[in-house]
Amino acid sequence: MxxxxxxxxxxxxxxxxxELHQGDDEHSLEVRSPxxxxxxxxxHEFSHDEIDKxxxxxxxxxxxxxxxxxxERARILxxxxxxxxxxxxxxxxxxxxxxxxxTKDARDEVLRxxxxxxxxxxxxxxxVGEAQFSDAFxxxxxxxxxxxxxVPLGMVxxxxxxxxxxxxxLSKIAPALVGGNAVVLKPPSQGSVACxxxxxxxxxxxxxxxxxxxxxxxxxxxxxxxxxHPAVSMISFTGSTEVGRDLANKAGMVPLLLxxxxxxxxxxxxxxxxxxxxxHIVAGxxxxxxxxxxxxxxxxxxxxxxxxxxxxxxxxxxxxxxxDPRDNATVTPLVDPAAAERALSLxxxxxxxxxxxxxxxxxxxxxxxxxxxxxxxxxxDVAWVEPFAPVxxxxxxxxxxxxxxxxxxxxxxxxxxLFTRDVDVAxxxxxxxxxxxxxxxxxxxxxxxxxxxxxxxxxxxxVQGVRYSxxxxxxxxxMVINMSDRDLSEIH
Length: 492
Ligand code: NAP
Ligand code: G3H
Description:
Layout: H1 2-7, H2 13-20, E1 29-32, E2 39-43, H3 48-67, H4 70-86, H5 88-99, H6 103-125, E3 130-133, E4 144-152, E5 155-159, H7 165-178, E6 182-185, H8 192-204, E7 212-214, H9 219-227, E8 234-238, H10 241-251, E9 256-259, E10 265-268, H11 274-286, E11 298-302, H12 306-317, H13 337-352, E12 356-359, E13 363-364, E14 367-368, E15 371-374, E16 391-397, H14 400-408, E17 412-413, E18 415-419, H15 423-432, E19 437-440, E20 453-454, E21 456-457, E22 460-461, E23 463-464, H16 466-472, E24 474-482
Parallel strand pairs: 5-6, 5-8, 6-7, 8-9, 10-11, 10-18, 11-16, 15-16, 18-19
Antiparallel strand pairs: 1-2, 3-4, 4-24, 9-22, 12-15, 13-14, 17-21, 20-23
Helix pairs in contact: 2-8, 4-6, 4-8, 5-6, 5-8, 6-7, 7-16, 11-12
The structure holds NADP nicotinamide-adenine-dinucleotide phosphate and glyceraldehyde-3-phosphate (G3H).
Glyceraldehyde-3-phosphate binds near residues 292 and 293.
């Protein structure tokens, strides 16, 4: 199977991947392009019996994998990285059509994933344990030594979202594999053709079939069965807060790594470099049509400079390329018509309550025009709800304290961006913001991928990022050596 995939990879490749995993039963999953409605693939939807079989085989395979040298697992991951680069064109091609991502961004996703996999392989080689003596604890002698090191959790269920199927797939798969786990990947429906190609690439690179498996199908049909399966030792999920919360309720006592929704604020104070702030905000809000968890999703601007900032934002937005991802547009069609409807209903709600529409607000099919809303207030849904679309609301605030209050009033706590030249103020605000990360004088973003990436409140649980992800997918195993008080002069 991999040979067929690879021999065809340079030409019409995603169609080959789709054929290899094709379903023709009544439940097979038809993947259509958000760009032009064309058929990207028809994927097999796994039955419960097939899922049981996958877990049974990968549970068996995990035992040998866990006992294989870390260096060998790392070598295989290096081959995965090499193949990602080798087949980047083919993977890019499918991402562009399947999730409507601009060609340059899709290519970046693949190359960034190769870098991530390499970094993960190297990081795993340098994981060290520790030794502790008992006499550090009150009323204990030095007669015990604990040696602790990391062991795999067992079976990691990896569930990425549609917006980075390859990258957020590999951000789970690579740390899990190098940590000695087996992995079952449940790809997003829209993104399952790209993930099928990725699966072929992993197997071809030397990841055993009984250590990594792909299970395709709609989350609404097979999700509950997967997350409650007794073979699963850990779930790494990225997606909406709604699904993440439901999953957490159902999964029971397994460790969870959840990266969920966000409503990241860009706070702009009156002393900021406004041109730089506007450039960062527009890049942060509109890249990939705003379909990023870390997108800037609202601006909280000091009223003293709001007119000037809004003017700069408008001018910058007017330069954005809007249209077809194959032409490298920044604002491309959203993943489905429902996403476009949701976004525009937020705009309608805001306008009906007095917000000023300064551009956009229209739609062509799934494509929502880049939209700027000024004079947004806390009474409007767009101040709180994640649009996952190219819609940017501006709220004017009287001072930094109000900006912090509004930022923290969100149910989410992923990131915030703060624009000021005053490092003292930046430090104080950073300490008060209830988010995983504050970006000072820069847009909100996940990378570089070895940085800690996390959310508070409804934005998630646990920490992602190369070392943090390996740690989340392994656990400490301790051995305690109990020493006698024998007299060594009597030992020969
Ligand atoms: P989603 O609808 O929650 O889907 C995410 C994944 O969960 C998909 O693979 C989906 O499969 C699967 N799924 C759906 N129902 C399931 C169930 N009952 N059990 C198990 N899995 C299930 O999210 P999305 O629309 O793909 O992505 C957009 C959302 O993700 C936004 O809220 C965004 O903020 C968030 N996100 C967060 C981060 C972060 O790192 N914090 C990163 C990216 C995206 P199907 O596609 O088959 O339904
Ligand atoms: O969509 C969620 C991703 O984790 C965001 O990653 O900031 O690199 O676009 P990014």
